[in-house]
Amino acid sequence: MGRLFARVTFVPSLIFNIFMERVSSRRWFDRIDNRVILGALPFKSMTKQLVETERVRGVISMNEDYELKWLSNMKRDWENSGVKFLQLSTVDIFEAPCQEKLKKGVEFIQDFDKSDSDGLVYVHCKAGRTRSATLVACYLMAKYKLTPEAAVSHMQSVRSHIWLGPKQYEALHTYHNRLGER
């Protein structure tokens, strides 16, 4: 049921996101720290700006294939622009990314830190407020030794329309507990 609902509401909710960016203080993307940009679905027309102006060298998409197919770059398109790409497909609205995907995403970002690259990683889902925010919170917990609540609070101070529900917070607490076991 969740997967079907996510598909049916994709276009209307994307239109809503575009509308909100135009009429409110919401931005399409926000820099969370010196490594990560958290944002909404990057349209193909944004590629040049993201690569040249924002210095994006890595992209993590939390979207399913149907969300990327017509409007955004797929793996080959990003790679042709010199950008590494990782897709961690997660159903919108009712699901949180699984622990394996969260771990993979955080490691992808950490690889940029290890390489000493000055490039940024653009982490996105459709709206840049739930699926991608869950992953970015895990990155913040790992990098800065934050609690789940502190990580979310930091993101909300930069990107106020982030919304995490009970499933996302459960995923954050599980990830945080596993960090303590390492």
Automatic annotation (TrEMBL):
Residues 103-170 form the Tyrosine specific protein phosphatases domain. GO terms for cellular component: cytoplasm; membrane. GO terms for biological process: phospholipid biosynthetic process. It is an enzyme of class 3 (hydrolase). Keywords: Hydrolase, Lipid biosynthesis, Lipid metabolism, Membrane, Phospholipid biosynthesis, Phospholipid metabolism, Protein phosphatase. Its EC number is 3.1.3.27. InterPro entries: Dual-sp_phosphatase_cat-dom, Prot-tyrosine_phosphatase-like, PTPMT1, PTPMT1-like, Tyr_Pase_AS, Tyr_Pase_dom, TYR_PHOSPHATASE_DUAL_dom. Residues 28-181 form the Tyrosine-protein phosphatase domain. Gene3D superfamilies: Protein tyrosine phosphatase superfamily (3.90.190.10). Pfam families: DSPc. It comes from the Eukaryota. GO terms for molecular function: phosphatidylglycerophosphatase activity; phosphatidylinositol-4,5-bisphosphate 5-phosphatase activity; phosphoprotein phosphatase activity. It catalyses: 1,2-dioctanoyl-sn-glycero-3-phospho-(1D-myo-inositol-5-phosphate) + H2O = 1,2-dioctanoyl-sn-glycero-3-phospho-(1D-myo-inositol) + phosphate; a 1,2-diacyl-sn-glycero-3-phospho-(1'-sn-glycero-3'-phosphate) + H2O = a 1,2-diacyl-sn-glycero-3-phospho-(1'-sn-glycerol) + phosphate; a 1-acyl-2-hexanoyl-sn-glycero-3-phospho-(1D-myo-inositol-5-phosphate) + H2O = a 1-acyl-2-hexanoyl-sn-glycero-3-phospho-(1D-myo-inositol) + phosphate; 1,2-di-(9Z-octadecenoyl)-sn-glycero-3-phospho-(1'-sn-glycerol-3'-phosphate) + H2O = 1,2-di-(9Z-octadecenoyl)-sn-glycero-3-phospho-(1'-sn-glycerol) + phosphate. This is Phosphatidylglycerophosphatase and protein-tyrosine phosphatase 1. It comes from Cherax quadricarinatus.
